[in-house]
Amino acid sequence: MGPSRVTPHWARVALALALLNASLTLVNVWPTPFVRLSGDLSLEVLGACALLVLLHRVVAPRRRAVARVLAGLWVLLTIGRYADVTAQSMWGRPINLYWDVPHLPSVGAMLATVASWGTIAAVVAALVVVPSLLFLPLRWAFGTVIDGAADPRVRRAVLGLGVLAVVWGGVQRLDTERVPQWPGVATPVTAVWAAQARQYAFEASGAGVRELGPAPAIDSTFARVQGADVLLLFVESYGSVSWERAAFAEALAPVRATLDEAIRSTGRTVVSTYLDSPTFGGESWLAHISLLSGTEVRDGATNTRLMAQQRDTMVKAFSRGGYRTVAVMPGIRGRWREGAFYGFDEIFDADKLAYNGPSFGWWDITDQFALARLDALELAATGRKPVFAVFPTISTHTPFTPAPPYQPDWARVLTKNPIDEADLAAAWAVPTDWLDLSPGYVRAMTYAYQTFAGYLTLRRDRDFVFILVGDHQPPALVSGEGAPWHVPMHVVTSRPAVRDALLAQGFRPGLRPERPVTSPMHLALPRLLDAFGSR
């Protein structure tokens, strides 16, 4: 065989191997949805190609069918690799198919509400076209390897490369300091899929429910808050990054000063701390159930297990203490099974809140309206029991656009025209930069602080304990690479006994939270209950 024929033959096989290897070793370009080549080696590629050359006599007669089947499988593996590396960059946490997949339609509908038609069309086209574009070159690559396996030199080269990669990867792991780590050996994508399959089987078998630990004791005398309403607001995407990144801290300083002044001018005080959230960048309900149940819930599977049981909750404890318990859930448009688990007396979902104002994003309802509606429906009445209300806010939810304009005239908030047309048009006119959500985050957090300050000022004569706690950091697109899972908690009150009890537990006076982190989210429950009345 002459050089003119050997060079193209080897070149095609080398190109096919490089293409297959690249498909399973892509790494993310942080913090974007894009990927780049890493130069790492894929054991899955080398293992599959080794089998092809070892079985070349059996495979060659079925070349087309084998190439098609392997290409289809490789499309799934490539998509799995992309999802694995991109989820970490975009949201700061790994994917969990068991819990995440059922939420994809809602997430897609939410993002479509604020995305342009061009962006939506591009995403839909990518979902349809990309698998096809991946399939064709992958089929060619596998066909080329099968053809090349007829040459014994190709067989020896492929097998030798596979053995070398296994040995090299093992040596790298044995001595990470002295052995060069590039090129590395990529984590097998099949291991990611296998872990997802094991997780699904574990939950489907019922083993997850049996593994859940015993319920903590949840109790309080509520002696220090008797007669006061207690409002617990989970502030969406309110993370420590908003205080600790210089750009955010500077941009939010004026509105924080406004909130601080509203607290002090109404005769109240505030103490603050950092908590360790059980989630990052999303899945707010994990933070909600952790704090309200006193059980750490860091994944959707544990959440499902917990709600399958009869457990005591913060809500039920307040009910035993003589409180009327209500949930304000503007983001809920259908059945909310968590409501029965928590034990609320009343749940104000989107329908019951009856919002008739202009639309804002996927949920329509603004946080200011929801708070004003809670005030009108529950808190304005006289001769009633004290109220314990839980309100997960939504106006600071990713992608933070459009940020509602704050309405200083609270009398207008519950009307059909709560916002001037010019302000409404300006809010919707702000474009969404999907690669830089930070400006939108600042606008959304500014609106949240304005709402809290406005309500405290509006109800300066009210005796209540006002708890603001972040559910999680904003996604990694905003919070940055390697950000901690820490969130602020503020407790605003006019009751010195509550303030002093929290200070004794490590809270700091003032609005600014300081390190160290006081506790994980779930352990904040007994701390609060002790501050409300020693058990």
What's the arrangement of secondary structure elements?
Elements: H1 3-23, E1 27-28, E2 35-36, H2 43-54, H3 56-59, H4 63-91, H5 97-100, H6 104-114, H7 117-148, H8 152-174, H9 189-204, H10 207-211, E3 229-235, H11 241-244, H12 246-265, E4 269-276, H13 284-293, H14 300-307, H15 314-320, E5 324-329, H16 338-342, E6 346-349, H17 350-353, H18 367-379, E7 387-392, H19 410-413, H20 421-429, H21 438-458, E8 464-470, H22 476-479, E9 486-493, H23 496-504, E10 508-509, E11 519-520, H24 524-532
Parallel strand pairs: 3-7, 3-8, 4-11, 5-6, 5-7
Antiparallel strand pairs: 1-2, 4-9, 4-10, 8-9
Radius of gyration: 28 Å
Query: Hey, roughly how much beta strand do the residues contain?
Result: 5-15%
Under CATH at level 1, the class of the largest domain stands as: Alpha Beta
Helix content: 40-55%
CATH superfamily of the largest domain: Alkaline Phosphatase, subunit A
Termini distance? 89 Å
Beta strands, count: 11
The CATH architecture of the largest domain can be named as 3-Layer(aba) Sandwich
Explained architecture:
The chain is α/β, with parallel strands linked by helices and 535 residues long. The chain folds into two domains: 3-202, no CATH class; 211-482 and 514-521, Alkaline Phosphatase, subunit A (3-Layer(aba) Sandwich), CATH 3.40.720.10. It contains 24 helices and eleven strands. It has helices spanning 3-23, 43-54, 56-59, 63-91, 97-100, 104-114, 117-148, 152-174, 189-204, 207-211, 241-244, 246-265, 284-293, 300-307, 314-320, 338-342, 350-353, 367-379, 410-413, 421-429, 438-458, 476-479, 496-504, 524-532; strands at 27-28, 35-36, 229-235, 269-276, 324-329, 346-349, 387-392, 464-470, 486-493, 508-509, 519-520. The strands form two sheets. Strands 3, 4, 5, 6, 7, 8, 9, 10 and 11 form a nine-stranded mixed β-sheet that branches. Strands 1-2 form a two-stranded antiparallel sheet. A hairpin with a 6-residue loop joins strand 1 and strand 2 (35-36). The longest helix has 32 residues, at 117-148. It is elongated and about 90 Å long. The model is unreliable at 1-7 (pLDDT under 50).
